[in-house]
Amino acid sequence: MEVKRKKILQSSLFQQTQNTNLQAKLDFEVRMREGAYKLLLACSKREQVLNASKNLLTCNARIRAYLHELQTDSVSVDRVPCTGKVALSGLRFPLMWRDSDHFNNRGSSRRMALFCMMHLGSEVFDTEMVVVDRSVTDVCFEGVTIFQDAVPSFELRVELWSCVFEEELTMAKTPKKLAKKLRNSFGKSGGKKLCPLLDTSDPDTFLQCHPIPSGARYNLLAYTTLGLCEAEGSFQSHSLIILQNAEWPTWLPLYGNLCCKLVAQPVCMTQHMMAGYLSQKQTVLGMNRSCSLYCVLSGGFLSCYFTPEEIDAKVEPTFRVPVTKEWAGQRSRSLSITSPSAGGSESHVFSTGSGEELDDWLEAFHQHLFDQGLCQWLHCCEQLMKMEVKSPPKPSLFLTKEADCVYNDLSINSPCRFDSVTDIIHNKIEESDGLFLIGRQEKQEPPNWSTLFDGSQSVLVQKTIHSQSQTSTPCPSPVTGAKKRPAPPPPLHKAPYT
């Protein structure tokens, strides 16, 4: 319930428990980072080395996020908006190769290893590593990433990291082995005092003392930040900030846009903010009566059922009362809700069993209106967005002119865009309304057969008689050796034809 949630958030025990959980996560990521670095030094195959380097960067990012969360002091406010889920799926980065590189198979033949890292608060996720070359036109990352505890003012940072995918990686010796030998020679306690930075949880200090080999070092290629305004629930295009140029060895010709689907689901739209029995007061034929109903506050409505089992059975509520800013609450052990109707406004009066229960319902209504107000979850409270478990299917390569293609929304004023034949093909597809893909076909009018019978045109009919030549071989009878059947005699009552 909403009132219970607010009391828990304001309690000091909750803050201590939250800090304890963050410290446990921090210790776990520190151990994972040490294991990832050991695996990085022990691997010999290039895929394993690059994956270990990717996991090392992800662990460092999570440690940095946990440390920032522990160092941030929580500010107590009167009313805290509800949290929500944010899902990111269908990550796609269009590439712009030169025509000579992509179509004629010329230019550099290097391969690049890429992965995405996503930050939202203290939650950090990464994608699988993909390898691309000049034959790839889009860098795609499948799957859905879900962030559980997002606030309305969330900032989702999406980063694209790149590394050269070399056939052979030269693993140079790192100072870590020398430092360990030095620490062991001085003893365990003396070595720790001499090299205290080796066991620290600080991400920057760890990378300084544990350098990543040059052949497995990722560089940040581009990034973007998404907020609540970009959560439209559909496949959209967003601008990228590119940090590298063509002189970098890990550079790729990015179009300058990121295509993805961002969905936000506030808790007030998916969970019950308040639930319990209320008595509805009604006046029927001049007589006052009350009806006990099980009411649920969720999604901007007060849904009323006869029993709570109807919710589990997915039965439609008896009636639903929209909760708007014009509602009015009374404290004389009754709750009055005014909602718009066809005739103007309609008032629903509910009573509670005690004054404390009434206070809980009033607080839940105020909090629910605050969560769905103009300054919080905005359009996400108008209609619940569908959150897919799987990544949305990739759009087809060729779409008609009327189709909704995200590439039509991409900026054509990119500073690093090259002229290519794809523009010519795209223009021809638009001019021919898609007929360019299947070949032009001129429209032919069907023949008008009615002119043969209305006498408007002369018709010449010739009969061709095939004569059997002397040299030709007569066609054999289909039935050979059978006796010919004689013709039947004429009728007796008719004279023979002469």
UniProtKB/TrEMBL annotation:
Q: Name one GO biological process term.
A: hemopoiesis
Region: Disordered, residue numbers: 464-498
Mind telling me which InterPro entries this protein's record contains? AHD (IPR012966), Cytokinesis/Rho-signaling (IPR051364), PH-like_dom_sf (IPR011993)
Every Anillin homology domain range: 82-230
Top-level taxon of origin? Eukaryota
- Name the residue ranges with Pro residues bias: 487-498
Q: What is this protein called?
A: Rhotekin 2
Instruction: Give the species this sequence originates from.
Output: Cynoglossus semilaevis (Tongue sole)
Query: Taxonomically, what lineage is the organism?
Result: Eukaryota, Metazoa, Chordata, Craniata, Vertebrata
